[in-house]
Amino acid sequence: MTNPVKAKLIAQGGGDTIEFMFNPVELEFSRSLNLNRSTGARTSEGLPKISFGSPEPYRLTLSNLTFDTYETGKNVYNEYISKLRKAVEFMQNKERPPIYLFTWGSQEYLRCFVQTLSYKLTLFLPDGTPVRSIVNLTLEEISETTPAGNTSTPSSGSNRTANSRWG
C-alpha cells in the first residue's frame, strides 16, 4: 500500500514550502464579479441596468486542517504553525507576503498568497507543550505578472497547467 500524496503550499521565490500533515477533506473555491450598477437606470422589467466589471481572484478555503505531533512529543507550534505564521507576514526586504503554488499530487490548483490564517492549539503535554492544532486558511489567487507590493490585482491570465481544474 502506498502512502497518500500530501497537499502542499510550494514557496515561489522565497519562504518555506508547507506540507500539510493530513490532507484537506474538501477544497472550497469561490469567486465573485464586480458589477457596475447605474443608479436610476432600469430595464423595461424594472430591474437595474448592470454592466459587468472585472472578476475578483479565486479564493480557496481550507478548513479544519489538523497538525498533530502527540506521538513524537514535538512542539506542533515550532514544527508547523510557525511556518504558517510566516505565510501571513511580510518577507524581509520585500513589500509582500510569500507567494505559493497550492498543489496536491500532480494537480496545481492556485498560485496564491495566504490571505487569512486562524489556528487553535487543542492538545498539550503535561509540561504545556502544544502537540495538536486545528488550522483554517484562506488562499487568494495571484497572477504570475502581479507586481511586488500589489496583491489586489485580479488575475486575468493565471499560469496554470493544462490539467488544472480551473484552467
Architecture overview:
The chain is mainly beta and 167 residues long. It has one domain (14-141): Elongation Factor Tu (Ef-tu), domain 3 (Beta Barrel), CATH 2.40.30. The chain is built from one helix and nine strands. A hairpin with a 5-residue loop joins strand 1 (7-12) and strand 2. Mean pLDDT is 84; it is low at 146-167.
> How are the strands of the largest sheet arranged?
2-1-7-8-9-6-3
CATH class: Mainly Beta
Counted beta strands: 9
What is the SS-derived class? mainly beta
Inertia-based shape: elongated
- The whole-number mean of residue pLDDT values reads 84
Specify the number of helices.
1
Oligomer: single chain
| CATH fold title | Elongation Factor Tu (Ef-tu), domain 3
What is the CATH architecture assignment?
Beta Barrel
Ordered list of secondary-structure elements with their pairings:
Elements: E1 7-12, E2 18-19, E3 28-30, E4 33-42, E5 48-55, E6 59-68, H1 76-87, E7 99-104, E8 107-124, E9 130-141
Antiparallel strand pairs: 1-2, 1-7, 3-6, 4-5, 6-9, 7-8, 8-9
Key features of this structure:
167 residues; mainly beta; Elongation Factor Tu (Ef-tu), domain 3; two-stranded antiparallel sheet; 7% helix; 45% strand; elongated
Summarize the structure.
The chain is mainly beta and 167 residues long.
